[in-house]
Amino acid sequence: MIGILTIIEKTGDTGLSAASKLQDVVHEANVLDNECKIDERIEHSDETLLDCMVISSSSSLLKKFVEHVDVFTTNYEQTEFAANIQTFIKGENSYEIQETDILMLIDDARTIIPQFPAFNYVYGSYSMEQIPQPKPRKQREIIPRERNKQAPQKKQPEKIQNVEKEEEGIQEIVKLMNDVLNTKCSQNNGKPIKYYDYIIDTDSFANTLENMFYFAFLIRDGLAHIDLNSKGEPLIKSMKNQTLTEFRATGGVNAQIISNITMEQWRRFKRPGYIQQYKQACVQ
């Protein structure tokens, strides 16, 4: 068997003849394997090694055969196949083929068409005596409308109300942050304060991001100003109404700026920010 497999591997043949030889080798190996018991395999370990070599070589060859198979190849022409069937049915007779002559192929068809094994269903077989009946459909009662009845008043969409509530909530948060900024700048003699000392929330990274988002509205409305010092650290300060009026009178336009911060940068801050301190004081 090993010799046959070696010859197939050396020649590189992947045709039907090589596949037929491989089938014979595998069949012979299965027959020998069924004849041997476990005790005999232990005594003859060299034969077990040969079996493993046969299985390994057969598997590699079979893989090559599968790779060379073209599933789109047709093995016969339909017209030629139909002509062969007619010749087989007609035989030596010269009469025309009748529709009932096709029954001559029943015996051959039974051997060609595979038969599926019977299955046992968990829920048992269906009882034809207890067929479920369709439920009667209830007819809807049509109630006539009263002509003099007033049409119902249309309600304002809830979505618009929710948007208005959200805008009011944002305005309240922005006003709170502006008050905290004005207070801290006043305590610092009107000088700018550090942006991160104002915005950081050491208890929550999400709250820190929210503070950055809402602070952008202060920049947009001209209520706050942000700049960098010589070290590249952001500084913020509150803007007076007079300064804002002069800035816009000269054609100045405020842009909404949203900064960013990573989780690692946020962990470096250990002291609570001014907004966080204000919220904690209100809770107490």
UniProtKB/TrEMBL annotation:
It comes from Acanthoscelides obtectus. Pfam families: Nse4_C. This is Non-structural maintenance of chromosomes element 4. Component of the SMC5-SMC6 complex. Residues 132-162 are annotated as: Disordered. Keywords: DNA damage, DNA recombination, DNA repair, Nucleus. Component of the SMC5-SMC6 complex, that promotes sister chromatid alignment after DNA damage and facilitates double-stranded DNA breaks (DSBs) repair via homologous recombination between sister chromatids. GO terms for cellular component: nucleus; Smc5-Smc6 complex. Belongs to the NSE4 family. Residues 139-162 have a biased composition (Basic and acidic residues). It comes from the Eukaryota. The keyword Oxidoreductase does not apply. One of its GO terms (biological process) is DNA recombination. The keyword Ribonucleoprotein does not apply. Its main location: nucleus. It is found in: Nucleus. Residues 192-270 form the Non-structural maintenance of chromosome element 4 C-terminal domain. InterPro entries: Nse4/EID, Nse4_C.
